[in-house]
Amino acid sequence: RQAAGIWLSLYRVGSLNVASSLPPASASLDCLVAEQGCVQEQSCMVIYRLLEYCAAEEAVSPLGSDARMECLEAQHSLQHYRPLQVCKCQRGSRREEHCLRVYWTVRFAAYDEYDVSPYEELKLNLVRNLEMSHMASIMAASSLSVDGQNQCLKAAQDCGLYEKCGSLRSEYVVACTKRATVSDNSCNRQKCHKALRRFLERVPEEYSFALLFCPCSDTLCGERRRKTIVPSCSYEESARGEEKVGKPNCLSLQNYCSRDELCRSRFADFQHNCQPSPLSASGCMRESRAMCLKAYAGLIGTIMTPNYVSNSSTEVSQWCTCEGSGNELQGCQRILNMFSTNTCLPNNLSADLLLLITCNSKIISVILSFCVCVLK
Q1: How many CA atoms lie within 13 A of 87 on its CB side?
Q2: Which one of 70, 111, 139, 342 is at 20 to 30 Å from 297 when CA atoms are compared?
Q3: Helical ranges in 11-150 per DSSP H
Q4: pLDDT top residue among 59 and 10
Q5: SS3 letters for 271-290?
């Protein structure tokens, strides 16, 4: 803990000037590029390395008041280095976690900063293309009933016909069902989460979303849909064998999430893209349910993994409770309400998209989960 004070005594952040001679950065600047530029500037590098130390120490245990003040002073000084303040990261990129670590390092201790996404914004025309092509094909493939067929079963069969989808789905099922040890029925949740993220990041939404959001009219289909992400490993807790333990408190869950750069980022992205609005026709403040769907799916494979609450409901929720929240009950209920009462979420998607999207009267092949759709 004394290292921060010693470092700052040698390089007082107040005497550093990292704003001069630095060109302004565009909003789409990658944080890895911004970091590289910073470490090439001596004055910027000194502050940045100090903030790395602050973040690493804070992750272990809360800093003392003096050390924390010095870290916040360093953070304030680094605000003059614009590239690190405006940089973003790419979803699912090979170096995503490193990029996110940079993003949050310069936002030291800002654990409540969830109103802005750390990920690059997609251009409006690209978002609209997602709405009309990806969402159209997903709904065409998953919502058109074929002789009363179980649509979640059909989505799984379609996934199996596409090699990448089938192999990556098998990979996460194995990772999420394999015992951690011979004598223990519990799974390796970290491997399960990693495999789930890999599946959702690499498989086209036409297949992955058809599995996650397939429409059901009976409990058998609903149970298959609920078990798609292997809840027994991805979020439920198991004490011994099949014995279940109680749900964690939602505030504790969020606190754990805030200490993990990836979870923290996916949760911030979810809140940014899934803000509900009663004044919007889509129910979303940002007018894009496609982006909300992607953000919701981004939570799967993190500590904040959501899922359907039962096999007979389209309601989704976190696996947590507000019991024992005391005077923080309102903040805890806010977390639950992000899912249970959110008009922008997938549990309200199917009916609205079916009204918005119509296909030609003849159903063309849905083996590849694709249908050319037009608006009425």
Answers
A1: 26
A2: 111
A3: 31-39, 42-60, 65-78, 82-86, 96-105, 124-129, 135-143
A4: 59
A5: HHHCCECCCCCCCECCCCHH
Confidence band of 357 (pLDDT split at 50, 70, 90): very low
Let me know: does 58 contact 104? Beta carbons within 8 Å.
Answer: no
User: What is the pLDDT at residue 279?
Assistant: 85
With residue 358 as reference, give the H or E element that holds it: strand 358-359
Contact 37, 86 (CB under 8 A): no
Enclosing domain of residue 11: 2-105
Whether 119 is covered by a domain: the verdict is: no
Q: Are strands 243-244 and 238-240 parallel, antiparallel or unpaired?
A: antiparallel
The span from the CA of 96 to the CA of 31, in Å, is 10
Same domain for 100 and 134, yes or no, is no
Q: What is the pLDDT of residues 236-275, one digit of tens each?
A: 876 555 555 689 999 999 999 988 999 999 999 999 999 9
Helix (H, G, I), strand (E, B) or coil at 175: helix
Q: How many domains would you assign to the chain?
A: 2
Residue 219: what are its φ and ψ, rounded to 5°? -70, -25
- What span, in angstroms and rounded, lies between the C-alpha atoms of 243 and 236? 11
Is residue 42 in a domain?
yes
Name the CA dihedral angle for 299, 300, 305, 310, rounded to a multiple of 10 degrees: 120
pTM of the full predicted structure? 0.81
- Reported as a pLDDT band with limits 50, 70 and 90, residue 337 is very high
**Residue 177: pLDDT over 90:** yes
- Paired with 298 in beta bridges are none
